[in-house]
Amino acid sequence: MANMNNTKLHVVYGDATLGLHGEGFDYIFSYGGGPESIVIDGKEWLYRTLKPTFWRATTDNDRGNRLHMRSGMWLSADMFLPCRGVKVCIDGNEELPKAPMNNQFVGNETAENVSITFTYITITVPETKVEVTYDITPDGKMVVTAHYFGNEKLPELPVFGMRFIMPTKADGFTYEGLSGETYPDRMAGGIPGIYEVEGLPVTKYVVPQDCGVHMDTEWVKIYRSRVQSNVGRDIKVYGTKEDKPLDRFGIQISAHNEKFAFSCLPYIAEELENATHQEALPPARRTVLCVLGRVRGVGGFDSWGADVEDAYRISAAEDITFSFAISPIKND
Amino acid sequence: MNADIKWLDDPEVFRVNQMPAHSDHAFYLNEDGILKGVNPLVQSLDGEWNFCYSVNSMERPADFYREDFDKSTFDKIQVPGHIELAGYDKIHYINVMYPWEGHIFRRPAHSLEGKVPVGDSFSGAAYNPVGSYVKCFDLEPGLCGKRVSIFFEGVEQAMYVWLNGQFVGYAEDSFTPSEFDLTPYIREKGNVLAVEVHKRCCAAFLEDQDFFRFFGIFRSVSLRAKPALHVDDMWAKPLLLTDNVSGSLSLQCKVSAAEGVSMEGCKAKISLLDANHESCFEKELPLSAELSFAPEDIGTVIPWDNHNPYLYTLIIRIFDAAGELTELVPYRIGFRRIEIKDGVILFNGKRIIFNGVNRHEWNAERGRCVTMEDMEFDMKVFKENHINSVRTCHYPDQIAWYYMCDINGIYMIAETNLETHGSWCKFAAWDMSWNMPGDMPQWRECVVDRARNNFETFKNHTSIVFWSLGNESYAGENLAAMNAYFKEADDTRLVHYEGVVHNRSLEDRISDVESQMYTKPWDIARYLENNPKKPFILCEYMHDMGNSMGGLKSYMDLLDKYPGYHGGFIWDYIDQAIMVTDEVTGEKVLRYGGDFDDRPADYEFSADGIMFADRTPKPAMQEVKYYYGKYE
Fold first, then answer.
1. Smallest CA–CA separation between B327 and chain A, in Å?
2. Hey, are the CB atoms on A300 and B590 less than 8 Å from each other?
3. Of B177, B203, B226, which residue constitutes the final position of a domain?
4. B117-136: per-residue pLDDT in tens?
């Protein structure tokens, strides 16, 4: 690699992507949709593009108070989210380096600060916009800032966050925050501390629903020991010999400015939404990390109409901004 | 007397030859029985019984009770247990609607201004399954030569009993004990007990609880032998006096003697021991059928409450004319005082706060047939999470649970077996055109009898703060009669009922407290700020269905603001779902309403616990623990 020190990013001006490389990390941003590859120490962390998320699998109370009837359009916005723009800023230069303009570059381009912003337009009626900006520094730290543009004509949001789908199921995660499963209106009993969670437990509500949210988090480290890459494995005999786990490897999400909420499950919201029973969920094969800027409370005054208290509902009328940082795990 | 199948249809026939309901005291020949833990006066009939299932009463083997009946075609079934979980009849969960909704048109006898006849809606129904149970047994030595009764702790929903070919009796009220005297029919060897259990009778209109609809002998069955002189019933009333330091005790007993035995010259010795087995009170009385003494000063006592559930042991010893001990009855009692003063419920002179839960009896594999281990586990969960009170929703529980609540200081709403929401809440709208039990005189005695069964069985339990008339049964003259019964029977406790809020014309005659369910915090504040008639409790709140329990703080804050607000009872303690083996994966999985081709169903609506059905805590538990601990 051309640049192996920690002072500059190695920039690859691709025809469809922007590559950023440094010691221990390799990131590729697809102009068509967002980050497509986050590789840390040779291990891929993205199965599909990192994107904003708007839907949570409705809880019994959500269905009781008819959130899904009011806010159902956020389900389709969550599933089908077009990316309608990309901007970059590389050491102050805001010109988008796409073909053929990128012919001017060579193989060892470097930069100190790279910022890339994707604009998403929701398929809600009316539509609105989300901008997600990635600020990457030569140490490999990536600060993600998601900005939702409010529109008072839109129904309230079930959730707003960023969703990672990771290629394989994680071994578990460790976080500094509150004990147990917490929500904005159910977190007084959460005890601050550092918690290690084995596997990716889905809370076994008889009907699968949103679960596993952890409020007020400082950081979370996700650990895996499996990859999808065939390297080191004979794909012709896939499944016929023992597929040994690797030494575990991790990624860290940290608070930036403010603490964040997250859930780390083997399913996306739509998979949970569709299952009537725990056993109707598909076999767990991925890791779905939702880093959440706003979480709707769960409510509970009753399950047949009482809404979540006002303070714990997410208005779609106002702008929402939140950020967090992605980094390799240091000193672990 | 012969059994009559028409009793199933007639609300005025609900107990035939049943012994009067009485206190749940244990009795022994002497100290030995207590120490050894085996009481030779009691013989369990739990275990394997012969069994035959029929889809309706026409198809049942009507003469199966005859001693010479050929039972070779009968299956085997475990008692206690639900017939559905043994694979005979469809498992069905439905909440508000009566379980025959969409299948059978029914109206309760005498409803619609008396136009509905008694008819044969239950005895003649094409679908109203029958379980015919037979148990053959020999008497154990300790029971021979004595008066013997049979004690069914719970049979759902109507039961006919025969012994050795002779009709013994009939019972309804699924959740309180039914006891019959077998003395005239029993022999030492080769007894044939026949029990015919009908899934539904007209009492189904009174037992519309929001739960899985089961039938069968689902609690233990035992034989009990009475010593020659026997305490049939006792009511000890320990009271903490208004100085909150000293106590008084009164006692009323009903005593019976075996045929030919006289009470002349017999004595009762009553003693009260503290927790260190030191005697604090002794009394000797000549024995009589009505044995009692008026309140006597005990001096300084240690009061019973949630923080220090201090129990004394009352011991009644019965001596015959020769001075021989013939019976010993121990009962653990606590001194406490419950009253309402200036709109506030006081317990031992202090405002009481209920950090409560509603608890259905539930075990994912056994249904409502819960085990001692389940109960002990539940009590441990209560203690660990600062749950200080329980409502036995919506029926009396197994007897052992009441003793556990006494020992562990759990304040109890002891609810009567009554729920009729399907009679007035129809398709999410109210319609009182017929409502149960309403005002109909023909339905009065059967519901008052349910109140009596509840009171008489459990009256000695220190943990009981409220008698509850039932759940969601609107409010009419029959509820008022139940209330009057409890007020007349017991001046030491309060009466609870929620449904009168829907018919305030009866609010001065029903319920000592303003009990509501799921009321929003701001509406509770409004009630308490506008000259409240009664102290306020929430008999149900924080509906913990699925991922829930958000906003508990808004209720807990009311405790700081309004002395007349006394907290509430979370809905509810444990998810009701059934553990089955998944037909696809072979794994153990939890199933709910609608998963058994049962329709109409209310699906997952019975999964509202702070515990999952497998008795692991839901994540919401830490929130409950935090707030209930804070207000302990």
1. 51
2. no
3. B226
4. 999 999 999 999 999 999 99
